[in-house]
From TrEMBL:
<dbReference type="GO" id="GO:0003723">
    <property type="term" value="F:RNA binding"/>
</dbReference>
<feature type="compositionally biased region" description="Acidic residues">
    <location>
        <begin position="122"/>
        <end position="137"/>
    </location>
</feature>
<dbReference type="GO" id="GO:0000462">
    <property type="term" value="P:maturation of SSU-rRNA from tricistronic rRNA transcript (SSU-rRNA, 5.8S rRNA, LSU-rRNA)"/>
</dbReference>
<feature type="region of interest" description="Disordered">
    <location>
        <begin position="107"/>
        <end position="137"/>
    </location>
</feature>
<dbReference type="InterPro" id="IPR042035">
    <property type="entry name" value="DEAH_win-hel_dom"/>
</dbReference>
<dbReference type="GO" id="GO:0005730">
    <property type="term" value="C:nucleolus"/>
</dbReference>
<dbReference type="InterPro" id="IPR027417">
    <property type="entry name" value="P-loop_NTPase"/>
</dbReference>
<keyword id="KW-0547">Nucleotide-binding</keyword>
<keyword id="KW-0347">Helicase</keyword>
<dbReference type="GO" id="GO:0016787">
    <property type="term" value="F:hydrolase activity"/>
</dbReference>
<dbReference type="GO" id="GO:0005524">
    <property type="term" value="F:ATP binding"/>
</dbReference>
<dbReference type="GO" id="GO:0004386">
    <property type="term" value="F:helicase activity"/>
</dbReference>
<protein>
    <recommendedName>
        <fullName>Helicase C-terminal domain-containing protein</fullName>
    </recommendedName>
</protein>
<keyword id="KW-0378">Hydrolase</keyword>
<dbReference type="InterPro" id="IPR001650">
    <property type="entry name" value="Helicase_C-like"/>
</dbReference>
<feature type="domain" description="Helicase C-terminal">
    <location>
        <begin position="66"/>
        <end position="270"/>
    </location>
</feature>
<dbReference type="Pfam" id="PF00271">
    <property type="entry name" value="Helicase_C"/>
</dbReference>
């Protein structure tokens, strides 16, 4: 008869923001032995944190302005932008592409004197300062890429490839880029400070996604993305007061949503003893 060796189960729990004490002090999980804790110190360069003086509600517009300012005024380096969901990301990607689309040369476009005077008058009416030559400046081209969990794998892999020559890489992502992956050559991080969380609505009796403030641990993880391959900068689009009022850690999902779907899935897999 064939004999099989049964090896003991070895479980490795990995996390960048795990509250270790919650596990070590849980006698129900580990009644007889305390598990080993192994800390892996990754190389981290210095990251300068910049807060906004005022926290504005329209974080999408603030994000767009900040990314444009970085590209126009700061040295070369990739930009990683954190937004909350797919629709926001797709809109921001298209908007940035249009903003830094190579401008048509003057020789290719004939403009009459009356049109020039009219455009200048419209700019002054909109409050733009005199001598603003931004419309005539052709900035270095950009390569803007989205990143979120539902994106096809072949498109997700593009963020790891070097950008085109003389192009600045701009990646607009959800919190998937906080800890799951490390994108090379990121020098600037723009953090809107929000994320989508799955919560239970007792009135609708359904689980739904709401945009809420991120935790301090998540904010620190986002900032750290700018210091993986060299010194960097993190621009938080909220004030230091807002940051100080954030939760230290996010509430675990098991405490935010019902577990009925998880229980039914385990039952379907044939797991009977759930106690």
């Amino acid at each position: 008869a064939t004999t099989y060796k049964h090896y003991p189960l070895r479980l490795v729990i990995m996390s960048a923001t795990l509250r270790v004490d919650d596990f070590l002090e849980n006698k129900r999980l580990f009644p007889n032995i305390v598990p080993r804790v192994i800390k892996l110190e990754s190389r981290q360069y210095s990251v300068d944190i910049h807060f906004n003086k005022v926290t504005k509600e329209d974080y999408e517009e603030e994000t767009f302005k900040k990314v444009c300012k970085i590209h126009k005024t700061l040295p070369a380096g990739g930009i990683l932008v954190f937004l909350t969901g797919r629709k926001e990301i797709q809109y921001m990607v298209e908007r940035l592409k249009m903003e830094f689309k190579p401008k048509q040369k003057k020789s290719q476009k004939k403009v009459t004197t009356n049109e020039v005077v009219k455009e200048k008058q419209e700019s002054e009416d909109e409050g733009e300062g005199e001598g603003d030559e931004d419309m005539d400046v052709d900035y270095n081209p950009v390569q803007v890429l989205p990143l979120y969990s539902m994106l096809p794998p072949e498109q997700q892999f593009k963020v790891f490839q070097p950008p085109k020559e003389d192009h600045r890489l701009i990646i607009v992502s959800t919190n998937i880029a906080e800890t799951s992956i490390t994108i090379p050559n990121i020098r600037y991080v723009v953090d809107c400070g929000r994320e989508k969380q799955k919560v239970y609505d007792p009135h609708l009796r359904l689980s739904t996604y709401l945009v809420s403030w991120t935790s301090k641990a998540s904010a620190d993880q986002r900032a750290g993305r700018a210091g993986r391959t060299g010194p960097g900068h993190c621009y938080r689009l909220y004030s230091s007061t807002v940051f100080s009022n954030m939760m230290q850690y996010a509430t675990p999902e098991i405490l935010r949503v019902p577990i009925d779907q998880t229980v039914l899935q385990l039952k379907a897999l044939g797991i009977k003893d759930l106690c």
